[in-house]
Amino acid sequence: MSTQQNTIDYLLDQLSSATQMTSRKMFGEYALYSGPKVVAFVCDDQLFVKPTQAGKEFLKELEERSAYPGSKNYFWISGEKWDDGEWLSELITVTASELPLPKPKKKKITPAKA
After folding, report:
1. What pTM did the predictor assign?
2. What is the mean pLDDT of each run of 10 residues along the chain (114 residues)?
3. Which of 3, 4, 103, 114 has its CA 20 to 30 Å from the CA of residue 28?
């Protein structure tokens, strides 16, 4: 079962106070971005936040689950907590602050035309 668009719309609305939140569809599921950083995944209408020390301290009590078969564990955020937009935005903000910027993509070399 893949994630529904209304789930993403709701999460992005709840995260409106977090920095530059966007989403990108990937294989029927979604990645959530804070600026250029992937901070979370939404798989099967469930929220999985990338694990960081700051996120762990913020959550205090946490549950870790794999987002999809074969993935590493992420912080699983129950749907009950999605309604508190301020809390959710703060979690994403502290998570993003610890994540590195993505590595720049290598430019494709186009063969010269003769």
Report:
1. 0.87
2. 90 90 91 95 97 95 92 95 95 94 79 66
3. 103
